[in-house]
Structures are given as C-alpha cells and as structure tokens.
Design goal:
This is Right handed beta helix domain-containing protein. This protein has 679 residues and is mostly beta strands. It has 5 helices and 49 strands.
C-alpha cells in the first residue's frame, strides 16, 4: 500500500490538518482538482501547494479526473513532488513545479492511458549529481493515446520524456514542447504511430551530471531524440521540429537524433524526420530524412510556459474556452437513497504520535466520505476526504475501493452501504478501525458487515488449476525506491496478497501501484510486472511454469517462491520442475552473465564512427571486461586494478562493474552508455 510514494523520515509537522491548513489544500480541493473541459486557458487564479522540508507530495489521477491551475513549490530543503495518472480521459493542465527535485521519485510525472498533459513547467529539473531522475515517464503499462503539449522540460538527469519501454502498446503525441539540457535523452519514444511535431530541443551547456554530487562522476551523454527499443517496422514521425544538440553546446557527449541496432534488444524503431532543422549528428540505420536542414529556430513554441507561475496561470494561445469551471454542485451530503438499511460508519482512528498512517478497504456497496459525530480519544476530529492528495473513494469493476492517510490523533470516516470484503491498516500500532463507534480488528469488520461467521477454510485457495498454484513475491529493503521487476509464465497469473510481512514489517500485495503494476495475457503467455519499494512487496499467484524473470535492482529487491527466497533462475527451475542447467553462463545475446555482485555495465561503442576513440575511466569498486551487448575483449585493453584504458575502432568494448564511475574521459566520437540495472 502506498509503496515508495512518500518520505516518512524526519518531519516538522504536528499533524496532517495543521499541515494542510498551511499549504491551502482545502482550497485545492474546491477548485484546482475540479474536472473541466476545454484547452489550457489563462487564469490569474491558481493554488499554491508549498511542500514542507523533507516532504514528498504525491497526487494521483484516474478516469475523467483533472488537475489544473496549481503551482507546486518544492523549494524547501529535501522537498519533492510527483503526479501520477492512469486510466482514460484524465488531464494535467496548467501546472508548474517551482524548485529542483530532491531525487525521491523516478519521474516528476508518471502517466499511462488516454489523457493529456498540457501547459506544464518542469524546467527547474534536478540538481546535478542525482542519478536516474526524469521529467515525464510513460511506463510499459501505457495503453491508448496520450498527448503532451506545450510543456517546458529541462535539466533532468535521466530523460526529459521517456516513453520507450520495449513492450509499451500505447502511442504518444508530443506537440509544441521545449526540451533543454536533459541527460541521456530529451525525448525518447519508440511506439509505432507516435508523433513529435513543432517541438524545440536544444542544449546550452547545462546538462546535469548523473552521479555523485561532488561531480567526480562526469557522466553526460545527451541525445536529442532516441528510440532505444522497438523494431524497424514501427515508425515515429518527427515533423517541423528544431534540434540543436551538438559538441559545441553540450558539456559532454552528444547526438542530435539516433536510432540504430541495439546490442541487446536488436532492431530499434524507425524515426522519420520531415521538414526539420537539425544542428548536430544524425546517426543510425533506422533514421530517414525528408527536407531536413541544419539551421534550427530555437524560439520557445508559442503557448509554452517559461516559469512555474506562467504554467499555473495558463499561457496557451488558444484561450477561447474561458478555462475550466469547477463543478459547483453540492450534492455530496444529500445521502443517496438505496441500500441505507445496512449503512454503517467506518472510522480509522490514530494515536497522537501517528504520522502518515495509511489504510485501504474494499466494499461491495457504495462508499462515501463522512464525519463522525464523536471525537478521537485525544480530542481529534474524525472526517474523511480532508487529505485530498491521498484520501480517495473509487468504484472499480462493481466494487468500491477507498483509503487514505491520517495521523496526529485525528481520524478518517466513511459511510459504507454493503459488506466490507477487505481491509488493511499499515501502522496498526498507532491506528485502529471502528465500526459504528466500536473498536474492532479488520477481520471483525469484514465478518460484521457481511453478517457471516468467519470462514475457517480461507487458506485452501481457489479451485481450478491450483494443483500447481504458487505464490510469487517480490520483496524490497526499506531503502528501495521504485524497484521494478517483470516475469513471464505459461499459466494464469493474478495479483495476490501474501499472508506474511516483509522483514521490515511491510505488506506484500500486488496491483497497488496502478500506473506500473500489470498482468496481461499475450499470445498464450502471461506477462506480469510492477514497481515497489520502501520495505514493501508485491505478490502474485502463478498456476504454471515461470519461464523468465527479471529484477531491476537486485541489491535492494529479491524474489520469493512460496515464502522461500530464491534467485530468478531458481524460480524458473522450481516452477518448471526441472533440475538446474549447469551450463547457464551465457545470456540470450551470447554474452556471459556478470560475476556475482557486478550488475552495472559500461559500454563504449565505436561502431558508428569512422575514427578510433581512446578512453579511460576508474571505478570505486571492481571492474572486469565483458562481451555484454556483443562487445569484444581486445588485447590492447588494460585493466589496472580499478582503472581501465582502451581503444575502440569500429567495435564495442564493455565492462561489468560495481561502485561508482569516476574520471571518465573519451578522445574521439565513440558513445558511452552506463547501465545501472544491466542485470
């Protein structure tokens, strides 16, 4: 529950209501979050959310929801923020972020599904030296068509816009955006049918370094547009776009446009440049050009904001709709008639020392926010829906899902008009649940609302193919952040919840991160994956052999099969019922598996340049030559302890390593990729 979404370390707040009063979230609930129609419209009225020192503000949008006319201030020390969107017909419009990111979230905005991101300012980026943080990230769960329009995205260490997961199925349409000084790539996308139109991409010598804050790891590889994945039959059209990414305006390595054969994943998608101006290198066998010049106009596209204030107020030229008006209907308290005969008051109550205590539950009948007519033992109010960034009530697939966050001796309340089928509390030492004013355990609430006696046979599992049903769990350390994983199985896969906790006391439950967690059946196989962290875990039931399994951050995540910790290879072996294959030292691409503990890779690629390039670098840990991504191991490569010196001449060199990279230098035009999660 709420895995990896907030920093719960040292906080300066007394309780959530005093904090919300200070930042004006109540006003936000009244206007900024109201759903509306029309294009981005200028408005002098916008809400300011001031995120406190060490806080991480997170807001999620679902079907038909809109977030607009909001300025999110993260200038306080250690403050951070993120917006997450998924589903259909959601809109993020007229939103500005003021201040640099602290590095808490992988992306400033994570979005999937059919929706629009319009007139958003992400131009303050992240401080140099913070690794792997991006502006807008589109996960592999994306389906439908998404539009990103009139956005200012600058100075991110891991892609300005990233929408290049190799199995993403939805399209992305980027229009009239300005992207500047982003490391790795300003705009990375690969899905067939996606488009880039009217955008400006440039560097000004301010690409942030992706590494330690002392600058010892000078990793800058800035591309304008790159695919990264895909296949040659997929086409991305780039029209009327102006790009200036070259050696003279980049404080490191640079390529303006690239799509070529990938050493690991093979073909990449085709990029079609039409009526574009590009000052910089265009390379790769999967790039076509039609009427392409070399004199870009780097004027910021009209309607694109240049500050957080401009974004929040709206600067779009097509200001004809008069903006979006909040729904002024006040019918929430009229108490819908219907199933009131079994209406119950469900309250979540906290001790005074509780901080950000969260909960969630599922019911078969309607659920609404409510206010109890009594106080908590410490004199606090019990009212649901006051923390708009976290409290929610949603109807999904004929069930009602609700949850939220409270603390400081306060409470949340709901009316429930049907059986509660599931209920979970994250911090039971400082929070409890009450049904109609009576304190109960979560199990008792389920029993009382259903009117049934406890079922003692719940552990028998579902009937069907359960003869080989296994529980597959992905578990994290407390310091894990957005640790990803994926696997493939031959039989049905479902989200599940383990009946035990992680070593750090977290829950193990799949499907809680709707923007990332997924289960899909494709071509007779079941594909599943997701993201978790913070000492929590994800779980699935699997009713067939697991044929492939990959973990992105094996230093902070591991996999368990029926409660037993295993390596990915052991899971495949145990579910298949086969003995381990003693000859598994080779990857699918013919390269060897890395030595134990070496999961990071450096690839120096000279295959697309005409002249030799020499390089040298050092690491703080161990380093060994590798054939990763079809690299060669040359006799003239010298590894002296932790320092490597070599030359590429029409070939590719690779190394496995751990620790940090320091003092990397390249003489020549070879490209350098540093992969932190290569294995």
């Amino acid at each position: 529950m709420n895995k990896g979404t907030r920093n719960t370390g040292n906080r300066d707040i007394l309780n959530r209501r005093s904090y919300l009063s200070a930042i004006g979230t109540s006003a936000l609930a009244a206007s900024a979050l109201a759903a509306g129609a029309g294009s981005a419209a200028a408005s002098e009225d916008y809400e300011i959310i001031e995120v406190g020192r060490g806080q991480n503000w997170v807001h999620s949008l679902g079907d038909g929801e809109t977030l607009e006319n909001v300025l999110i201030d993260i200038t306080a020390e250690g403050a951070d923020a993120q917006i997450r969107a998924s589903g259909d017909d959601w809109t993020i419009r007229n939103v500005g972020f003021r201040g640099q990111a602290a590095g808490t979230n992988v992306n400033r905005i994570t979005a999937a599904g059919s929706g629009t991101i319009e007139c958003v300012y992400l131009g303050d980026g992240i401080r140099s030296g913070v690794t792997r943080n991006g502006g807008i990230g589109v996960p592999r769960s994306h389906r439908g068509a998404m539009t990103i329009k009139n956005c200012y995205i600058a100075e991110w260490t891991d892609n300005g816009i990233y929408a290049s997961e190799r199995d993403v199925r939805g399209t992305l349409h980027v229009e009239d955006c300005y992207l500047r000084d982003n490391n790795v790539t300003s705009l990375r996308m690969c899905r067939d049918g996606s488009t880039i139109e009217g955008c400006v991409i440039e560097n000004t010598g301010n690409v942030p370094v992706a590494g330690p804050s002392d600058g010892s790891y000078a990793s800058v590889m800035s591309r304008g547009i790159w695919t990264g994945y895909g296949n040659a039959d997929w086409e991305v059209d780039i029209v009327d776009t102006h790009i200036a990414v070259n050696s003279s305006n980049t404080n490191g390595n640079s390529i303006a446009v690239i799509s070529s054969q990938h050493g690991t994943w093979g073909d990449q998608s085709t990029l079609n440049l039409v009526d574009c101006e590009v000052d910089g290198t265009i390379t790769g066998e999967y790039v076509t050009q039609q009427n392409v010049g070399d004199d870009p106009d780097l004027t910021i596209p009209s309607g694109t904001p240049t500050s957080a204030e401009e974004a929040a107020s709206g600067v779009s030229d097509d200001d004809s709709s008069g903006g979006s008006n909040p729904d002024e209907s006040d019918d929430a308290d009229d108490g819908e008639e219907g199933e009131e005969g079994n209406e119950r008051l469900l309250a979540f109550v906290t001790e005074p020392d509780a901080r950000f205590a969260s909960y969630e539950f599922v019911a078969e009948g309607p659920v609404e926010f409510a206010e109890a007519d009594y106080e908590t033992p410490s004199g606090g109010t019990i009212e649901g829906g006051t923390f708009t960034a976290e409290d929610y009530v949603e109807e999904r697939d004929d069930e009602w899902h609700a949850g939220g966050v409270t603390g400081g001796g306060q409470g949340d309340a709901f009316t429930v008009r049907g059986p509660v089928t599931a209920l979970e509390i994250d911090q039971p030492d400082v929070m409890w649940v009450e049904l109609d004013g009576e304190r109960m355990s979560p199990e008792e609430v389920v029993e009382k609302t259903s009117g049934e006696e406890p079922d003692d046979s719940d552990d028998d599992g579902e009937e069907g193919e359960e003869g080989n049903e296994r529980l597959l769990a992905f578990v994290t350390e407390p310091d894990a952040r957005f640790a990803g994983y994926e696997f493939v199985a031959e039989g049905p896969v479902e989200f599940a919840e383990a009946d035990y906790e992680t070593p750090s006391g977290g829950t193990i439950r799949g499907g809680t991160f709707v923007a990332e967690d997924y289960v899909e059946e494709r071509d007779g196989e079941w594909h599943a994956g997701g993201v978790t962290g913070g000492g929590q875990g994800d779980a699935f039931t699997v009713r067939g052999p697991v044929t492939a399994l990959e973990i992105d951050q094996p230093d902070v995540m591991w996999v368990e099969l029926d409660g037993e910790r295993m390596s990915p290879e052991e899971v495949v072996e145990n579910t298949a019922g086969e003995e381990p294959d003693e000859d598994e030292d080779q990857d699918e691409d013919g390269s060897e598996e890395p030595p134990a503990g070496l999961t990071k890779a450096i690839v120096v690629d000279g295959t697309d340049v005409d002249e030799p390039s020499s390089y040298t670098f050092s690491v703080t840990g161990d380093v060994v030559p590798s054939t990763y991504r079809d690299a060669t191991i040359d006799d003239d490569t010298e590894v002296d302890g932790t320092t490597v010196t070599g030359t590429v001449d029409g070939n590719r060199d690779a190394y496995w390593f751990n620790g940090d990279v320091i003092g990397f230098s390249v003489a020549g035009d070879a490209t350098v990729d540093i992969e932190y999660d290569a294995r």
